Amino acid sequence: MLSYVCLSWALLVLFTGCTVSELAVIGEVGQNVTVPCHYSVRNGPTSMCWGRDRCPSSKCSRPIIWTDGWRVTQQLSSRYQLKGDLQSGDVSLTIVSAREEDSGTYCCRVEIPGWFNDQLINHKVVVKKAEISTASPHTYTSEQTSAPGSTSESFTVTRTWPSVPASEAPQTASTPCSDPSDCLDVTANLQNTSVSLPSQQHPERGLYVGLGSCAALLLILILALLLT
Protein backbone atom coordinates (compact mmCIF):
# COMPACT_ATOMS: atom_id res chain seq x y z
CA MET A 1 0.00 0.00 0.00
CA LEU A 2 2.81 2.38 0.91
CA SER A 3 4.67 1.60 -2.31
CA TYR A 4 1.51 2.35 -4.32
CA VAL A 5 1.17 5.77 -2.66
CA CYS A 6 4.83 6.58 -3.28
CA LEU A 7 4.55 5.57 -6.93
CA SER A 8 1.45 7.71 -7.39
CA TRP A 9 3.17 10.69 -5.77
CA ALA A 10 6.24 10.23 -8.00
CA LEU A 11 4.10 10.09 -11.15
CA LEU A 12 2.14 13.15 -10.04
CA VAL A 13 5.33 15.12 -9.46
CA LEU A 14 6.81 13.89 -12.73
CA PHE A 15 3.91 15.04 -14.90
CA THR A 16 2.77 18.14 -13.00
CA GLY A 17 5.91 19.39 -11.36
CA CYS A 18 7.21 21.32 -14.37
CA THR A 19 5.49 24.53 -15.33
CA VAL A 20 4.69 24.45 -19.06
CA SER A 21 2.98 27.21 -21.02
CA GLU A 22 2.66 28.08 -24.69
CA LEU A 23 2.77 31.46 -26.40
CA ALA A 24 2.50 32.62 -30.02
CA VAL A 25 4.88 35.09 -31.64
CA ILE A 26 4.37 36.53 -35.14
CA GLY A 27 7.10 38.34 -37.06
CA GLU A 28 8.02 39.49 -40.56
CA VAL A 29 10.75 38.32 -42.88
CA GLY A 30 13.86 40.48 -42.64
CA GLN A 31 12.92 41.93 -39.24
CA ASN A 32 14.26 40.99 -35.82
CA VAL A 33 11.85 38.75 -33.94
CA THR A 34 11.99 38.61 -30.14
CA VAL A 35 10.64 35.52 -28.38
CA PRO A 36 10.01 36.46 -24.71
CA CYS A 37 11.14 34.45 -21.72
CA HIS A 38 11.70 35.59 -18.10
CA TYR A 39 12.25 33.94 -14.75
CA SER A 40 12.63 35.03 -11.17
CA VAL A 41 16.18 35.58 -9.92
CA ARG A 42 15.14 35.48 -6.28
CA ASN A 43 17.63 32.67 -5.71
CA GLY A 44 20.14 34.10 -8.17
CA PRO A 45 20.70 33.66 -11.94
CA THR A 46 20.65 30.14 -13.28
CA SER A 47 21.40 28.28 -16.48
CA MET A 48 18.89 27.94 -19.30
CA CYS A 49 18.68 26.92 -22.94
CA TRP A 50 16.67 27.54 -26.10
CA GLY A 51 15.77 24.67 -28.44
CA ARG A 52 14.04 24.23 -31.82
CA ASP A 53 11.28 21.88 -30.67
CA ARG A 54 8.91 21.30 -27.79
CA CYS A 55 10.52 21.09 -24.37
CA PRO A 56 11.52 17.51 -23.56
CA SER A 57 11.75 15.96 -20.09
CA SER A 58 15.25 17.40 -19.70
CA LYS A 59 17.57 19.84 -21.44
CA CYS A 60 16.55 21.18 -24.89
CA SER A 61 15.91 19.37 -28.15
CA ARG A 62 18.03 20.77 -30.98
CA PRO A 63 19.59 23.46 -28.75
CA ILE A 64 20.47 26.76 -30.40
CA ILE A 65 21.81 28.80 -27.46
CA TRP A 66 22.90 28.22 -23.84
CA THR A 67 23.64 30.54 -20.91
CA ASP A 68 24.94 29.90 -17.40
CA GLY A 69 22.94 32.85 -16.07
CA TRP A 70 25.80 35.30 -16.51
CA ARG A 71 26.89 34.95 -20.11
CA VAL A 72 26.19 32.97 -23.29
CA THR A 73 28.18 29.74 -23.19
CA GLN A 74 27.02 28.12 -26.45
CA GLN A 75 25.55 29.62 -29.62
CA LEU A 76 24.54 27.76 -32.76
CA SER A 77 24.51 30.91 -34.94
CA SER A 78 25.08 34.63 -34.54
CA ARG A 79 21.46 35.09 -35.66
CA TYR A 80 20.34 33.77 -32.26
CA GLN A 81 21.09 36.28 -29.51
CA LEU A 82 20.14 37.01 -25.90
CA LYS A 83 19.96 40.80 -25.76
CA GLY A 84 18.19 41.08 -22.42
CA ASP A 85 19.72 41.52 -18.95
CA LEU A 86 20.62 37.93 -18.07
CA GLN A 87 21.29 38.69 -14.40
CA SER A 88 17.76 40.10 -14.00
CA GLY A 89 16.18 36.99 -15.51
CA ASP A 90 15.51 38.35 -19.03
CA VAL A 91 16.50 35.51 -21.34
CA SER A 92 14.33 36.48 -24.31
CA LEU A 93 15.56 35.12 -27.62
CA THR A 94 16.17 37.53 -30.52
CA ILE A 95 16.20 36.09 -34.03
CA VAL A 96 18.14 38.53 -36.22
CA SER A 97 16.87 39.05 -39.78
CA ALA A 98 14.19 36.39 -39.46
CA ARG A 99 13.44 34.03 -42.33
CA GLU A 100 10.40 31.96 -43.20
CA GLU A 101 12.27 28.78 -42.24
CA ASP A 102 12.66 30.18 -38.72
CA SER A 103 8.97 29.46 -38.16
CA GLY A 104 8.25 26.63 -35.76
CA THR A 105 8.19 25.71 -32.07
CA TYR A 106 10.85 27.07 -29.70
CA CYS A 107 11.48 25.88 -26.16
CA CYS A 108 12.69 28.12 -23.35
CA ARG A 109 13.93 25.95 -20.50
CA VAL A 110 15.11 27.54 -17.27
CA GLU A 111 16.87 25.08 -14.96
CA ILE A 112 15.64 25.76 -11.45
CA PRO A 113 17.56 23.85 -8.74
CA GLY A 114 15.60 20.93 -7.34
CA TRP A 115 13.71 18.00 -8.72
CA PHE A 116 11.20 18.76 -11.44
CA ASN A 117 11.40 22.53 -10.85
CA ASP A 118 12.43 23.60 -14.35
CA GLN A 119 10.42 26.38 -15.96
CA LEU A 120 9.32 25.38 -19.46
CA ILE A 121 7.77 27.65 -22.09
CA ASN A 122 6.93 26.55 -25.61
CA HIS A 123 6.58 29.31 -28.23
CA LYS A 124 4.88 29.03 -31.60
CA VAL A 125 6.85 31.35 -33.90
CA VAL A 126 5.39 32.37 -37.26
CA VAL A 127 7.53 34.41 -39.66
CA LYS A 128 5.55 35.82 -42.59
CA LYS A 129 6.47 37.83 -45.63
CA ALA A 130 5.85 41.55 -45.34
CA GLU A 131 2.60 42.64 -46.95
CA ILE A 132 3.25 44.77 -50.01
CA SER A 133 0.53 47.19 -51.08
CA THR A 134 -0.57 46.70 -54.68
CA ALA A 135 -1.70 50.31 -54.99
CA SER A 136 0.89 52.49 -56.68
CA PRO A 137 0.93 56.22 -57.40
CA HIS A 138 -0.70 57.03 -60.73
CA THR A 139 1.54 58.87 -63.16
CA TYR A 140 0.16 60.35 -66.27
CA THR A 141 2.38 60.95 -69.30
CA SER A 142 1.52 62.51 -72.59
CA GLU A 143 3.36 61.08 -75.54
CA GLN A 144 2.81 61.03 -79.25
CA THR A 145 4.04 58.01 -81.12
CA SER A 146 3.79 57.15 -84.75
CA ALA A 147 3.44 53.75 -86.32
CA PRO A 148 6.64 52.07 -87.49
CA GLY A 149 7.59 53.18 -91.01
CA SER A 150 5.40 56.27 -90.94
CA THR A 151 6.59 59.85 -90.80
CA SER A 152 5.13 62.52 -88.63
CA GLU A 153 4.22 65.85 -90.19
CA SER A 154 3.25 69.15 -88.63
CA PHE A 155 0.85 71.57 -90.28
CA THR A 156 0.74 75.32 -89.70
CA VAL A 157 -2.46 77.18 -90.57
CA THR A 158 -1.97 80.85 -91.43
CA ARG A 159 -4.93 83.19 -91.85
CA THR A 160 -4.50 86.19 -94.18
CA TRP A 161 -6.75 89.20 -93.72
CA PRO A 162 -7.21 91.95 -96.41
CA SER A 163 -4.98 94.95 -95.89
CA VAL A 164 -6.60 98.16 -94.69
CA PRO A 165 -5.12 101.62 -95.41
CA ALA A 166 -3.77 103.38 -92.39
CA SER A 167 -6.12 106.34 -92.98
CA GLU A 168 -9.18 104.08 -92.80
CA ALA A 169 -8.01 101.95 -89.90
CA PRO A 170 -9.89 102.60 -86.65
CA GLN A 171 -7.99 104.57 -84.09
CA THR A 172 -7.99 103.37 -80.51
CA ALA A 173 -6.56 104.99 -77.50
CA SER A 174 -3.60 103.03 -76.14
CA THR A 175 -4.04 104.34 -72.64
CA PRO A 176 -7.03 105.72 -70.70
CA CYS A 177 -7.47 109.47 -70.51
CA SER A 178 -5.47 110.86 -67.64
CA ASP A 179 -7.31 114.21 -67.81
CA PRO A 180 -11.01 114.86 -68.71
CA SER A 181 -9.92 117.70 -71.03
CA ASP A 182 -7.88 115.27 -73.12
CA CYS A 183 -10.95 113.09 -73.66
CA LEU A 184 -12.98 116.18 -74.71
CA ASP A 185 -10.29 117.19 -77.24
CA VAL A 186 -10.29 113.73 -78.75
CA THR A 187 -14.11 113.77 -79.04
CA ALA A 188 -14.09 117.20 -80.71
CA ASN A 189 -11.46 116.10 -83.21
CA LEU A 190 -13.55 113.08 -84.12
CA GLN A 191 -16.67 115.26 -84.64
CA ASN A 192 -14.79 117.75 -86.84
CA THR A 193 -13.43 114.92 -88.90
CA SER A 194 -16.89 113.43 -89.45
CA VAL A 195 -18.35 116.83 -90.51
CA SER A 196 -15.61 117.71 -92.96
CA LEU A 197 -15.68 114.36 -94.69
CA PRO A 198 -18.55 115.23 -97.17
CA SER A 199 -16.74 118.30 -98.52
CA GLN A 200 -13.54 116.34 -98.94
CA GLN A 201 -15.28 113.47 -100.67
CA HIS A 202 -17.19 115.78 -103.24
CA PRO A 203 -15.04 118.90 -104.07
CA GLU A 204 -16.61 119.24 -107.59
CA ARG A 205 -20.08 119.97 -106.14
CA GLY A 206 -18.78 123.09 -104.34
CA LEU A 207 -17.07 124.32 -107.50
CA TYR A 208 -20.26 124.00 -109.52
CA VAL A 209 -22.27 125.90 -106.90
CA GLY A 210 -19.76 128.74 -106.90
CA LEU A 211 -19.73 129.12 -110.68
CA GLY A 212 -23.55 129.07 -110.81
CA SER A 213 -23.74 131.82 -108.20
CA CYS A 214 -21.29 133.99 -110.12
CA ALA A 215 -23.20 133.50 -113.40
CA ALA A 216 -26.49 134.41 -111.73
CA LEU A 217 -25.04 137.61 -110.25
CA LEU A 218 -23.54 138.58 -113.61
CA LEU A 219 -26.88 138.03 -115.39
CA ILE A 220 -28.72 140.19 -112.82
CA LEU A 221 -26.11 142.92 -113.24
CA ILE A 222 -26.52 142.93 -117.05
CA LEU A 223 -30.35 143.10 -116.77
CA ALA A 224 -30.09 146.02 -114.37
CA LEU A 225 -27.83 147.94 -116.79
CA LEU A 226 -30.20 147.33 -119.70
CA LEU A 227 -33.20 148.56 -117.72
CA THR A 228 -31.46 151.69 -116.70
3D structure, described in words:
The chain is of the alpha+beta class and 228 residues long. The protein has a domain of 111 residues: Sandwich (Immunoglobulin-like), CATH 2.60.40.10. Helix content is 27%, strand content 21%. It is built from 3 helices and 9 strands. The chain has a 6-stranded mixed beta sheet with strand order 1-9-8-3-4-5, with no helix packed on it. The longest helix is centred in the C-terminal third of the chain and has 25 residues. The N terminus is likely disordered.
Top keywords for this entry?
single chain; 228 residues; alpha+beta; Immunoglobulin-like; six-stranded mixed beta sheet; three-stranded antiparallel beta sheet; 3 helices; 9 strands
Short summary of the structure?
This protein has 228 residues and is an alpha+beta fold. 27% of the residues lie in helices and 21% in strands. It has a domain at 20-130: Immunoglobulin-like.
- Element-level helix/strand string: HEEEEEEEEEHH
- Principal-axes geometry comes out as rod-shaped
Overall pLDDT metric: 74
CATH fold assignment of one domain: Immunoglobulin-like
User: How many individual β-strands?
Assistant: 9
- Amino- and carboxy-terminal Cα gap: 194 Å
Query: Which parts are unreliable, with pLDDT below 50 for 5 consecutive residues or more?
Result: 1-19, 138-158, 192-201
Write out the strand line-up for the largest beta sheet, numbering strands in chain order.
Answer: 1-9-8-3-4-5
Q: How much β-strand is present in the residues?
A: 15-25%
**CA gyration radius, whole angstroms:** 57 Å
Assembly of the depicted chains: single chain
Helical content band = 25-40%
Number of helices: 3
Superfamily at the CATH H level of one domain? Answer: Immunoglobulins
The CATH architecture classification of one domain is Sandwich
